[in-house]
Amino acid sequence: MPEKSHKNITCEHCGVRKEGLFSNLTSGEVDDLNCHKVCNSYRKNQAIFLEGSFPRGVYCVNHGKVKVYTIGDEGKEQIIHVAKEGEVIGFRAMFSGDPYKVSATTLEDANICFIGKDDFLSMIDTNTHLRNMIMKELSKELGDRAQFITNLAQKSVRERLAFTLILLQKVYGEEPINLSREDLANFVGTATETLIRLLKEFKDEALIEVHTRKLTILNQDALIRIGGAVK
Amino acid sequence: MPEKSHKNITCEHCGVRKEGLFSNLTSGEVDDLNCHKVCNSYRKNQAIFLEGSFPRGVYCVNHGKVKVYTIGDEGKEQIIHVAKEGEVIGFRAMFSGDPYKVSATTLEDANICFIGKDDFLSMIDTNTHLRNMIMKELSKELGDRAQFITNLAQKSVRERLAFTLILLQKVYGEEPINLSREDLANFVGTATETLIRLLKEFKDEALIEVHTRKLTILNQDALIRIGGAVK
DNA sequence: CGAGCGATTGAAAAGACTCAACCACCGTGG
DNA sequence: CCACGGTGGTTGAGTCTTTTCAATCGCTCG
Description:
The structure is a homodimer of 231-residue chains. By secondary structure, chain A is of the alpha+beta class. The first copy, chain A, folds into two domains: 3-151, Jelly Rolls (Sandwich), CATH 2.60.120; 155-227, Arc Repressor Mutant, subunit A (Orthogonal Bundle), CATH 1.10.10.10. The first copy, chain A, is built from eight helices and twelve strands. The first copy, chain A, has a five-stranded antiparallel β-sheet. A four-stranded antiparallel β-sheet of chain A has the order 3-8-5-6. In chain A, β5 and β6 (77-83) form a beta hairpin. Chain A is globular. The mean pLDDT of chain A is 94. The first copy, chain A, binds a DNA duplex (30 and 30 nucleotides) through α7.
């Protein structure tokens, strides 16, 4: 269970709303959203929802990074996406009628607001703009995953690592990338040991800077040359 | 350019409509759809749309199988999905505002109806049921791709081939699976030679029957044990 | 009949994984 | 305060899967 936040955020003043699904709402719609949401704070490595369970609503990340992943047959995680501030997660399951096909867990301490399924769906029903944003987002993610699939099938681990670092840079922005080696390996789709060896290569080639968990990209162009551009 | 069909299909009598996106329409809605669609026939290996081009509408497969794929950096195809009769393809790009992120090409002679973008979008706007079907379908595909990603990252080629055969059996139904070795390899995500060797293994183990291009599954349970179930 | 494409086979090489050991750091409890 | 245990990170060696390259085969089509 998430613990109650001491400090509730109002959607109106939410600094990260302008980026995501809930941007461009009218002030009435923002009020509506605000009434229906509940703020919760999460500790690092706390589960938000789990594959196989039934969805009760959607989660809007106010602060902190979140990994979205599936568990393979051998119990190994495959990270599909790292969500940042402003992103709404778990809405796919609102429409499919199925239980979650993925799990979500915080990568650091986080503030995440919850909007119940009924409230969310009725907002969608009445708000054309929001609905279009959702469909656009579903479509965008579908395209992203097509590229992810192609990368996994056709690129070497070295290439995929370069690609993943470029992708993560977009998530972390100015801050250094901050993931455990295991999480990074589970995103790239490789063994932890292989990942560590390749990170060292990149460090030796002065493409990245490594401070324990914190990775900084030094030569973005070279990484793009290795891993290909994010489409 | 697709050639004109000699025999137009009417949506009302379309035998494959009941399965897909356009099932459960009122008869008025079916008439509406019928007025806006254009029937085309395609030859085997004919492109329907290409990655990078701008979408003009959606395609409803009336007869024939269609591969949906991306082209990797080295020019190699990665098949993402094989669409069968009744499926609507290319609708993702209706909402994203982007050009196609995937290409689609017929795997055999096919009849495919076209519905223009404006007509399609206005149907969505006015038809809640259709809209819900679309959102459900987008969501379902997103879940499928999450499993695809996990399989590629974590399973061996042998396991992926078994999984892919089970998947393709659902597409081909009673008929034998009928793909070139190269297409099958590009779906599994492996080299053609590796695929051929593994097919022989499966044949020697009496899991499948091979007649040149045509593959029949003899032992479904064993393949599921090897490759895991389709979620 | 010859060209050409798809399918097949063999051999060698490369890439990645596994396993095992070791290190470094951190927080805890004696 | 320090020993202890645990977790996450790192390294090395060996193995195995998979790819690559090259050659051959078989069939269809013009």
